Amino acid sequence: MAKKTYLQALNEALDQEMERDPAVFILGEDVGQFGGCFGVTQGLFAKYGEARVKDTPITESAIVGAATGAAAAGLRPVCEIMFVDFIGVALDQLFNQAAKMRYMFGGKAKIPMVLRAPQGAGIGAAAQHSQSLEAWFMHVPGLKVAIPSTPYDAKGLLIAAIRDDNPVVFLEHKLLYGIEGEVPDQPYTVEFGKAAVVREGADVTLVATAKMVHTALDAAAQLAEMGISAEVIDPRTLLPLDTATMVSSVKKTHGLVIVHEAVKFAGAGAEIAAQVAEQAFDYLDAPIVRVAAPFTPVPFSVPLENAFIPNAADIVEAVKRMRG
Amino acid sequence: MSVSNDQMIEMLRTMTRIRQFETRVQEFFAAGKIPGFVHLYIGEEAVATGACGTLGATDYITSTHRGHGHLIAKGGDLKLMMAEIFGRRTGYCKGKGGSMHIAAVELGILGANGIVGGGGPIANGAALAAKYRGTDQVVVCFFGDGASNQGTTQEALNLASAWKLPVVFVNENNGYGISCPTCKSMAVADIADRAAAYDIPGVVVDGNDVLAVYEAVAEAVKRARAGAGPSLIECKTYRWRGHFEGDACVYRDDQELADWVKKDPLQRFENKLLADGLLDAAKVESIRQEVARELDAAVAFAEQSPLPEAAEVLEDVYA
Ligand SMILES: Cc1ncc(C[n+]2csc(CCOP(=O)(O)OP(=O)(O)O)c2C)c(N)n1
Ligand SMILES: [Mg+2]
């Protein structure tokens, strides 16, 4: 198996699906010759041409709406929102139109579209270019939400998203684009709603998403040196959410720490905590702990941004406190 | 609209400030001293300078991601701007905003903006407040050719015209929204043509001619102050640098850039003032030197200022 970056894995998924299915096409700002702001669509314009890799004006509402309408009419659009923060401009088309059409129409429409968007802090891009907004999308019946943390999952989940008959919000962390991992050359899918146990452990469960999966793995390595064996779980999709894997882990470890980069208040961690508490309360030796960003916009200056983003020391500290 | 000699020399100074400010930012960004993104205004100085030259201290502007020039032209303090771009707690936004969000509300500068098309509706709100209170303040809304395609911008134009709000929509048509040329993002050749849809004046001006910008905006400001509503002024110009620092500009050719560099708005205005005998070469040089000293001071201030403390992340979320 070849080592590829997360970005290459995404690019390969797009390429292979476009090759397989002529209904798949891409639209977004600067996705053509420019190759996308972060380079995810690089080379696809040259290979598939203007008709299938469409540069749009700066007009997010019209982008998401065009994807929705094209999907309703039988195509499989993959639209790119350059930074997830810009979804604000297009929210109606996503949550009132794309997400609800099938239900409102009594099951008579299918909206097989993917909305890709990078999110996350860590590059000094400040409040309007750094948010992690997965919880917004999780609150909308009709959408699915994928949030890969590895190159392998990035490719498999994107192919699954493109083949899915529902609108999928596909969230990429901009600081993961450069990480490398094993990625098969052949097309494959990663099933939605199946969490990955990325490290096995016996003493505490760490559930983490996106870039925080790697931070949690760092913390797990530090905890191991202290004699604490942490299990790390990556949900991979937040909607659907695989609580069964988390519950069975908690039944084994008796402790749960949830880690995400989005603000803690009303974040994905709140839903995960609630579900685990509902299903495994009696197995918990201590209250569930969330390690997440403070309830502030993302600040610009480096020391402020560093204070905003959860780190491995925060996780280690939380585990130690939990274990008394 | 007549411009006094002093005012013209002041405009030259402002353009020089913007050029030198941006050149410093370019250098410090390349040296890794500035985090995040910076979008430079080099080549477009005449637009901000001409437009803000028509405004008074209590008038408002809304700016964009390419906002340093607008702020300087509206009277922004170079030290506080530079400190903000360097992420220092002494900066305009205490290091919370950075280049894309510098604001100086006390100067009527309602912020640079990271959201393309974010400014139009806000400009309307400030104009509504002026109208509501019965002041004669006006608002200049700067926006790009790319931003002109956003629904928010078109909605703002419509509302401003329907409510006769005192807004001057100053479009900076530099030919591109990142890699996308205007010929691909819109079917009209002139963004000003869209004014017809809102029954407001739509004017195309040479955006590299500071006096042409000044005159067109001054006329629109007069109209707005008189209660006759908004105007749309399209300034044709060009950005010399990439969209952001680090952009390799694969989407445009060197010749196009070279042609526009020949139309350098700063050089052109200098030449005009020299030809008109308003100043001599020594005076031009002394303006450059004075501005360079201001910038030395601004950079020193930024570099010597402390970074924010981590705990400050929690401050300023709510009033
Ligand atoms: C809502 C939104 N969409 C996209 C972007 C990304 N973006 C930043 S600047 C820019 C181009 C803007 O073009 P234009 O309005 O012409 O201004 P210019 O950069 O040319 O000054 C784009 C697409 C953004 N910041 N906000
Ligand atoms: Mg432009």
List keywords for this structure.
heterodimer; A: 324 residues; alpha/beta; Rossmann fold; 7-stranded mixed beta sheet; 5-stranded mixed beta sheet; 12 helices; 14 strands; globular; B: 319 residues; 5-stranded parallel beta sheet; two-stranded antiparallel sheet; binds thiamine diphosphate; binds magnesium ion
Short description:
The complex is a heterodimer of chains A (324) and B (319). Helix content of chain A is 37%, strand content 20%. Chain A is α/β, with parallel strands linked by helices and 324 residues long.
Detail the topology: elements first, then pairings.
The complex is a heterodimer of chains A (324) and B (319).
Chain A: E1 2-5, H1 6-20, E2 24-28, H2 44-48, E3 53-55, H3 60-72, E4 76-80, H4 91-98, H5 101-104, E5 114-119, H6 134-138, E6 144-146, H7 151-163, E7 168-173, E8 180-183, E9 196-199, E10 204-208, H8 211-225, E11 230-234, E12 237-239, H9 243-253, E13 256-263, H10 268-280, E14 289-293, H11 302-308, H12 312-322
Parallel strand pairs in A: 2-3, 2-4, 4-5, 5-7, 6-7, 10-11, 10-13, 13-14
Antiparallel strand pairs in A: 1-8, 6-12, 9-11
Helix pairs in contact in A: 1-7, 3-4, 8-12, 9-10
Chain B: H1 5-30, H2 45-52, E1 60-62, H3 68-73, H4 78-85, H5 119-133, E2 139-144, H6 151-162, E3 167-173, E4 176-177, E5 180-181, H7 182-185, E6 202-206, H8 210-225, E7 231-236, H9 254-261, H10 265-275, H11 281-304
Parallel strand pairs in B: 1-2, 2-3, 3-7, 6-7
Antiparallel strand pairs in B: 4-5
3D structure, described in words:
The complex is a heterodimer of chains A (324) and B (319). By secondary structure, chain A is an alpha/beta fold. Chain A folds into 2 domains: 2-183, Thiamin diphosphate (ThDP)-binding fold, Pyr/PP domains (Rossmann fold, 3-Layer(aba) Sandwich); 196-322, Rossmann fold, CATH 3.40.50.920. Chain A has 12 helices and 14 strands. Chain A has helices spanning 6-20, 44-48, 60-72, 91-98, 101-104, 134-138, 151-163, 211-225, 243-253, 268-280, 302-308, 312-322, and strands at residues 2-5, 24-28, 53-55, 76-80, 114-119, 144-146, 168-173, 180-183, 196-199, 204-208, 230-234, 237-239, 256-263, 289-293. Chain A has a 7-stranded mixed beta sheet, sandwiched between helices. Chain A has a 5-stranded mixed beta sheet with strand order 9-11-10-13-14, sandwiched between helices. In chain A, strands 1-8 form a two-stranded antiparallel sheet. In chain A, strand 2, helix 2 and strand 3 (53-55) form a beta-alpha-beta unit. The termini of chain A are far apart. The mean pLDDT of chain A is 98. With 319 residues, chain B is α/β, with parallel strands linked by helices. Chain B has one domain (5-306): Rossmann fold (3-Layer(aba) Sandwich). Helix content of chain B is 43%, strand content 10%. Chain B contains 11 helices and 7 strands. Chain B has a 5-stranded parallel beta sheet, sandwiched between helices. The longest helix of chain B is centred in the first third of the chain and has 26 residues, at 5-30. The N and C termini of chain B lie far apart (43 Å). The relative contact order of chain B is 0.17. The model of chain B has no long low-confidence stretch (mean pLDDT 97). Bound molecules: thiamine diphosphate (TPP) and magnesium ion. Thiamine diphosphate sits between chains B (39, 65-66, 114-117, 144-147, 172, 174, 176-178, 243) and A (29, 58, 60, 82, 86, 89).
